[in-house]
Each structure stands twice: as structure tokens, then as C-alpha cells.
Amino acid sequence: MRESRIGAAIAARWGWLVLVCIGVSYLLVFTQRTGPGVISDQLQAEFHISAAVLGSITSVQYLLYMLLQIPIGLYGDKSGPERMLVIGVLCDGIGTLVFSSAHSFDWLLVGRAIIGLGDSLIWVNIVLILAKWFAKGRFAAVLAVVNTAGNLGALVTSIPLAAWIAAAGWHIPFTVIGILLVVAGIVDFVVLVGSGPARAAAVENAGSVRVERMPIGKMLADVVRDRLSWATFCCHFGAMGTYLSMVSMWIIPYFMGVYRLPRADAAWFTLTAFIGALVASPVMGWLSDRLHDRRRPYLTTQTLGTLAWLAVVLWRGEPPLVVSGIVMFIVGFGCGSSLLTFAVIRDHVPNERAGVTSGFANTGGFLSAVLLPVLFGAIIDAAGGTTGATHQVARHAYGVAFILPTAFSLVGVMGSVLLPQRRQSVAVRHG
Asked: In this predicted model, which residue has the larger pLDDT, 425 or 83?
């Protein structure tokens, strides 16, 4: 009992430090998920590639992320997630440095692949680390803080990054971000993995909960047979993956090509989406905790996101700019609500398979992010809407292509319908 009180005292004193380190790291990591969208047209011109090939830059990053989510979830359940998070942040930094120094398209892909490897180690392990520190009643709110930090990183890649690139080109800004990521990885190692008080508290907290181990095959079979696993998979496919793939590659080219806006003005619309995500994280975390219900809030935001993408299709690719701004805010708000995917898992999944279920759900989001950029680019190519196309052709091409994110978002609506209606407690064995 006395040891438990000591662990609680350490956690109360040092929990904020862990949260700050994780939040700053996630902010920097997120810049590499949305940053390439600011320079899509420059990459296409500099490396002489088509729209479909351009989409592969994002897809190769998210493909590695997707393929590794379940293994990472399994390993995170069976070992300490702190080291894995540190490795992930360092890989993101190294990959960004490779990307920023690339002089051929092959090296661009190598850089994005390393970033994808690092990304795969980030979110699931953040969820597992925070689960050691914060109780279920505060978990969604804590996830919202980290999610908000990520969305602040996305904000950096809108107007500020666009202005920086206009002044210095794209290589220098990405180099600086890569260096900052490496520094963040080193700081995370000192705080989370070193022998300091935060590490001692993590060990104490982990020791207070005894997690039953089960064979990997049985664990995977339980996850695949579980309706909740597929529901959260579909939710993340629709809410997070669709938004992330579009903002990280196609939104700025869309506004530059259809509305003939300069880059800095087009970046305002990604900023609008990022603000929506930034607002949604704390609001939806607080609301779902207060309602003791994840399903109704999630279903509402998923449905609104689908209708927002559909509005672009119904306006044949060119809604009024005010409507387009509203669309981007709603889509961003829906993505910010995707933290509810992991709050649902925290509420309903036993500890011994929380990591692998989180990985499975995250796979859904990044499957969407793998498929959508390339398919969207292929439709743009087929309809002749690439760089230099006339206004009418570009508008038609994008109007057709936006059917894809609409359909992908509808999968998220279906997933949210399948979620449990009320939050419940998961039995935990205490040592």
C-alpha cells in the first residue's frame, strides 16, 4: 500500500513532464504528415512526375505505417512502449533529413519510407504510455491534449510553412524540422527511458497492474472476431485516413488548380481544416467523457464529414469559397474527433490486447491514407486535370475525384453505427 502511494505521488509530480514531451514530439511528427501537401506542385515540377506518382510519395509513407500497426501493437503490449516511441521520433527526424536533401525521386521515396517506419511507432505507443499514467475517466481528455499538439503541428505546415518556403525554398525548412525531430527523440529518451523519476513512476504504475498474457495467435483471432475491432477500424478509415491523405497531398493543389489561388491563399484552407481538428480534440474528448458515450458524438461528426465531401461533388468541383471553407472546417473537425477511436478501445478492450486492437484500428486509418492519394491522383490524370490544365478541365477532374473521399468517409459512418452506445469498465487485475 505504501509503495502504491509513493508511485501515485511520483506520477502526480512527473506526469506533466511526460505529457509535455509526448505532446511536443507529436507536434513535430505531425508536420511530416501534412507538410508535403504544401509543396506538391513543386515536387511534381522539380522531379517531373505525374499526379498518380506524386500520390505515391504519401502512400509509401502510410503503407509502411499501415503494415506495421498490428506488429507494433503486439510488441507494445509485450514490452515497454517508451523505447519504441523514442525510436519512432528519431526515425521521423532521419527520414525528414533524407527527404529534404533528396536530389532524385528515389531518395524522396526513401525519406518518406523512413518517416513511415518512424510514424508506425508513434501513436499506438503514445496510447500505451498514457494508459499507464491516466485513469479512464481522464483518458479521452489527455488524448485530446496530445491530439491538439499534433494539430498545432499541422497548423505550422499551413501559412507559416508556406511563407517560409516562399522565402527560402522547401529544402531548408524540412531540414530544420528534421533536426528538431532528432533533438526531440533525444529528449524523449532522457525523460522516458533514462533512470529519472518519470521512468521510475512508469515502472511503478505498470507494476500496479498485472496484465494477463495470452498466445499471439489467440490474441489476433480475438481481435479479428471482435465487432468492436472492425467498428473502430472503419471509424478510423473514414475520419482520420481520408482527411490526412487529402490534406497531406491534394487540398492545396486543388485550390491552386480550380480556384487559381496563389500558394499562400490556398494554404488558408488547410489552416481552416487544421483549426477544425484543433477545436474538435478537446471538445469531443470532454463531451464524450461527460456523456459517458462515444458513439453518438462520433456518429454525428462522421456523418457531417461525409456530407461535407459530398457538397464538393454536388457543386461539380467548385463550391463557393465560403462553402469550401466550411467543408474544410467540418472535415478537420471530424478528424479531430478520431481520438474517440482509442477512447472506445480504452473503455471496452481488456488490457492484454489493447495495444493490438489500437494497432488494428490505426491500420484502418492508414489503409485509407495509402489508397486515397494514388487513386485520387489517377483520376486527376485520367481526366486531364494535372498542372497547367484549363479551369474547366481542372474543375471537372476534381469534381469527379472528390467522389472518392466521400465514399471513404461513408465507411466511417458505418463503423460509428457499430460502436457500443455506452462507456463501460474493463476488468483489470491488480497486483
From this structure: 83
Q: What is the pLDDT of residues 181-194, one digit of tens each?
A: 999 999 999 888 87
**Which of these, 363, 365, 367, 345, lies nearest to 354 by C-alpha position?**
345
**Tell me, what's the pLDDT at 411?**
97
Residue 180 CA, chain-centre distance (Å), reads 19
Once rounded to an integer, what is the mean pLDDT over residues 299-323? 96
**Angstrom distances, CA of residue 376 to CA of 24, 105, 268, 301, 352:** 32, 20, 22, 23, 38
Amino acid 300 reads T
Give residue 166's Cα distance to chain centre: 26
342-345, Cβ contacts within 8 angstroms, sequence gap of 24 or more: 342/127, 342/143, 343/139, 343/140, 343/143, 343/285, 343/288, 343/294, 344/228, 344/231, 344/232, 344/235, 344/294, 344/298, 344/419, 344/420, 345/127, 345/228, 345/232
> Out of 31-35, 76-80, 335-339, 394-398, which region has the weakest mean confidence (pLDDT)?
76-80
Threshold 0.85, pTM exceeds: no
Burial (0-12, 13-18, 19+ Cβ within 10 Å), 48: exposed
